[in-house]
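User: I'll paste a sequence; please echo it back and then give the predicted structure.

Assistant: Echoing your sequence first, then the prediction.
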Amino acid sequence: MNNFSINTRENGNVQILDLKGYLDAHTTPELEKALQTLVEKKKFNILVNCKELTYISSAGLGVFMAYIEDVRKHKGDIKLSNMTTKVYNIFDLLGFPLLYDIVKDEAEAIGKFSAKAN
């Protein structure tokens, strides 16, 4: 079984979650905890960097669905960046590109958050 980890960092008013490894039913509680912590701290501009995410299951996708409404209600967003083709295809299969802003890289996502703030 692959390991999963999350590194949280900040860039201006954007909270960045770097996901690494295998996100499935066994590891989703870590992502839930990280997102819940940000929401409790009223940090609603969230960027999920998927550069080192090797796999995501439907349980992992469900975590994003559980938080997006609350985040957007507070005028924030969850943006996703740096996906491998394999991970993007899983998101795409379930229609996530229609619901989420999936961008090529972190700089583009931060730029979109900055443009929205101005």
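The chain is about 45% helix and 30% strand. Strands lie at 4-11, 14-23, 45-56, 77-81, 101-103.
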